[in-house]
Amino acid sequence: MASGTTGQLTAAELSARRLRRRLVIAAVFAVSLILIVLNANARGNVPSGTTVEGVSIGGLSAEQATSVLTKKLAPRIKKDITLTADGREVTVDAQKAGLALDAESTVSKATSLTGTGNVFSRLFGKGGAIEPVYKVNQSALDRSIAKISKKLNRGVVDGGLAFSGTTVEAIEPEAGKGVSAESVTSALLATALAKNRKHEISLEDIQPALSSQQVQEALNSLGQTVVSGPISLEVSVPGTDESAGINKTVTLPIRRLSPFLSTAVVDKKIQIAVNANALIKNLQKDLAGLQEPARDATFRISNGKPVILPSRDGQQVNAQALGGAVARALSSDEDRVADVGLTTQPAAFTTEDAKKLGVVEKISTFTQPFPYAPYRYQNIGQAAKRVNKTLLKPGDVFSLNSIAKERTPENGYTTGFVIKSGRLQEDLGGGVSTMATATWHAAFFAGLERIEQRAHSFYISRYQPGLEATVAWGTLDLKFRNDSPNGVFVTAVRGRNFVRVTMWGTKRYDIEADSGPRTNPKPYATVTDTSATCTPQDGVSGFKIVVTRVFKLNGKEVKREPLTTTYNPAADITCKKPKPTPAPTPTTTAKPTVKPTPKPTG
């Protein structure tokens, strides 16, 4: 207001006053909103609408949001992801690549003022999609990036040295197309927790790590040193109060070592790399008497009771130490000695571990007879040998296919009769289902949890109906879980015409099998087959049966588990050779006596 005037305001003064009033109101409103948001943050609330890789955490407390992300989002990282680049692809385990969800930091980011959405949305308590925060094992990530780049890069050769026999040659560097470490890292972070497990990476021009001159210099210096002569491998075992020390020297000519040598580029320099694991295998005869493998504790049966076979620590040449020592010796003009010792290899499963399992008594046994046939004897024997001495720790799942292996000649199996499409046919592994039946019986009466078990498609009279099992590689398995708090030790023995499976542990229940009547009968058909591949078989009617597993504790029933099996009818098949085409001039011949072909029983 101008001096010497009345209380009236000019238009300009009135406009300025209104502007100041509006600014004050706006400032108060903004401060109030900020205080509201800060108050919400102080309480740890996540703004509404906040999501992390599709998982909603809006409106939750920080503790609740952390729990939700850990439960719903963290398991995704266990699923493999696929990275592609111009048609090539590589499968990556994000966990092995060193990535893990940092749920707490992710929630902290979500509750910060600028964590989600734009600032104005955040002021009004609205969130948005945010990227997860990771815990990163940098060394594991670097190793993974190197492997990924090697598979996706095209035509990129860093340069190096190649060894063959007693000679060395240069590997010339070449530029090419590839993926950068930054692009691989971004792809891993974008995909590790995403629903979409695939990510495309763009190729870039990649220059080799070395120049041609650097490779040539390495060839003339390091390369010639490596092939200049043999090295000595000295293995030293220090003595103890009970035994004298051992020192053994093995001379290793370059011709023997060259198959295990390559080079790596480290800090723009070529270094010798040794495939130590393969070299140790090659040196087994040279190291005989020095190394002793670790032995895990297990069990054996003595006088009808399980006893512990104690564990034993081993003594082994450490592969990493061997590789480093050999590389240093080969790179030296003077001291061409690789000196290594033995390291203790602890048993993975110790005597104390075995004692805690409670394997103290027989909990079930079952003997399944079978008609002797050479193929049954061999195939059942192979499966029994692999099942024998299986130890199931609490929670372990028994899989007959995994233990018995694929039925191939290489695994010791031969051809026998199996059921395919309701008919007996010849195939590898015939008879293994007898092993499955004996094993399932033992697991049934041990009270172990049934996971996967299927009866034969039609009934075979030597088996108890509804209490048998069949397996087929790649399609049918026998699986059960040790759902007890104790271990279960499985033994199996095959005789000439039987196989017996016994389970040892701590008895929990008395198990009974309550077999119901055979219902829903279905007659079988009669078939005459003139095909060259016909296999005769007896007809079997189909039916349905329910066998209930009854669990009793101290004489009282505590649980019933009904198992329903439906058997299909099996046709009665008679094989007849097709009638030959009549000759142009028939002649009278004696009619041969045809003997019926015996029918196999599977």
Automatic annotation (TrEMBL):
<protein>
    <submittedName>
        <fullName>Unannotated protein</fullName>
    </submittedName>
</protein>
<feature type="domain" description="YoaR-like putative peptidoglycan binding">
    <location>
        <begin position="266"/>
        <end position="336"/>
    </location>
</feature>
<keyword id="KW-0812">Transmembrane</keyword>
<dbReference type="InterPro" id="IPR007391">
    <property type="entry name" value="Vancomycin_resist_VanW"/>
</dbReference>
<dbReference type="InterPro" id="IPR052913">
    <property type="entry name" value="Glycopeptide_resist_protein"/>
</dbReference>
<keyword id="KW-1133">Transmembrane helix</keyword>
<feature type="domain" description="YoaR-like putative peptidoglycan binding">
    <location>
        <begin position="91"/>
        <end position="195"/>
    </location>
</feature>
<dbReference type="Pfam" id="PF04294">
    <property type="entry name" value="VanW"/>
</dbReference>
<dbReference type="InterPro" id="IPR022029">
    <property type="entry name" value="YoaR-like_PG-bd"/>
</dbReference>
<feature type="region of interest" description="Disordered">
    <location>
        <begin position="567"/>
        <end position="602"/>
    </location>
</feature>
<keyword id="KW-0472">Membrane</keyword>
<feature type="transmembrane region" description="Helical">
    <location>
        <begin position="23"/>
        <end position="42"/>
    </location>
</feature>
<dbReference type="Pfam" id="PF12229">
    <property type="entry name" value="PG_binding_4"/>
</dbReference>
